[in-house]
Write a structure and sequence with these properties.
Aminopeptidase, 365 residues, 8-stranded mixed sheet, globular, alpha+beta, 38% helix
């Protein structure tokens, strides 16, 4: 994993360091272009640091955001996107970033990092939140007792090549057999210009899992805001029946399948297995060299599925700083107190679940 990160960082030239005093600012629309230019060049930054997330989160969920940046001699030296979740059910938090698997400070030096940390701390106190959360791929505050972490999420990232046969052979035998099943059945991948079929497959999947659905307008907003960097790929049978669909992000030389799901038919035809293989093929042809399977919770079916592809789980040491709360948050489906809710949710008619889900999920982040 470290070799992947180091290699990716080596390919990118960081912005030139400035020499004057560093000052803190809040992102304004006129700064979007230079914010994104910094993010695309900064080795610490991820797709989830892009300015587009401000519009996506505020317009999709009505959630307030604060996108801080540090400037020095007219050059951005660090960024920290934050958003507030305030819920009677799930608590009050400030996070970097809700609805994103990666987040936290992306900066060129410790001075900028310190200013951004101080801004987050000050804002958390002013808002009276229970906790502040950073979703980094590595710990940003090792040895600092005011920041806590816990083992819950892992990420799965793997190098891929431009050779389809090499990528296929790298998949363990049993999983490779499932991929070949979809190939033999003539499944095909189609790029969609809207999120309709993707939402249909996704909504069916999350209902089976007993979790609330995101609003359809959220996926449409992702596609609208991120354009060519946000792809919706659907899998169909030879007679054009929908099997599965996935919304993915393209970032630098990486592809990140982010939201997806399958119809009931998918199990019969190995639809999900074929879908990720079809995406891997397309991404490799597009020049991607890292396949980021995204985060999963330990002990879940998604975790097992990704391990079956030969990907190695790498811990995601999310960090938490407590304010009004006395314990770390535990808002996830593995929490025993949510099991009854999950069982009941699975029994809802799909239209009812699709109507109610967005009101709940906006409070989860």
């Amino acid at each position: 994993m470290n070799s992947i990160i180091e290699a990716a960082q080596a390919k990118r030239a960081a912005p030139l360091l400035a020499a004057g005093p560093q000052t803190l600012h809040l992102l304004q629309p006129q700064d979007y272009a230079r914010w994104d230019a910094f993010v695309r060049a900064c080795p610490d930054a991820t797709f989830f640091h892009l300015s587009g997330w401000q519009k996506v989160i505020e317009e999709s969920f009505g959630i307030k955001t604060w996108f801080y940046y540090v400037q020095q001699d007219g050059q951005i030296q660090g960024v920290l996107p934050l958003a507030e979740i305030k819920s009677r059910l799930f608590g009050h938090s400030l996070g970097a970033m809700p609805f994103c698997v990666y987040g936290g400070v992306a900066a060129l030096d410790e001075g900028a990092r310190r200013l951004l940390d101080e801004a987050a701390d000050k804002l958390a106190r002013e808002l009276g939140v229970g906790h502040l959360e950073y979703r980094g791929m590595q710990r940003a505050h090792p040895g600092d007792d005011s920041w806590h972490t816990k083992e819950l999420y892992v990420t799965f990232r793997k190098e891929i090549s431009s050779d389809d046969e090499a990528n296929l052979n790298a998949i363990p035998r049993k999983q490779r057999a499932m991929v070949r099943k979809g190939i033999k059945l003539g499944l095909k991948g189609v790029i969609e210009d809207n999120v309709d079929r993707m939402f249909e497959a996704y909504a069916n999947s999350v209902l089976r899992l007993g979790t609330p659905v995101f609003p359809k307008k959220y996926f449409a907003k992702l596609q609208q805001v991120f354009g060519a960097e946000c792809e919706v790929r659907s899998i169909y049978t030879t007679d054009d029946r929908l099997v599965a669909s996935v919304l993915s992000f393209y970032w630098r030389d990486e592809v990140v399948p982010y939201y997806g799901g399958g119809m009931d038919l998918a199990r019969e035809v190995a639809g999900n297995d074929f879908m990720y293989w079809n995406l891997m093929q397309a991404a490799a042809a597009r020049g991607c060299r890292i396949f980021d399977y995204g985060r999963s919770k330990l002990g879940t079916g998604a975790y097992d599925f990704k391990k079956n592809w030969g990907f190695t789980a790498e811990p995601l040491p999310y960090e938490y700083k407590l304010y009004a709360s006395s314990a770390l948050p535990d808002n996830n489906p593995l929490n025993p107190k949510y099991q009854l809710f999950i069982k009941m949710w699975k029994k809802l008619p799909l239209p009812v679940a699709n109507f109610l889900g967005p009101y709940i999920v906006r409070n989860l982040g």
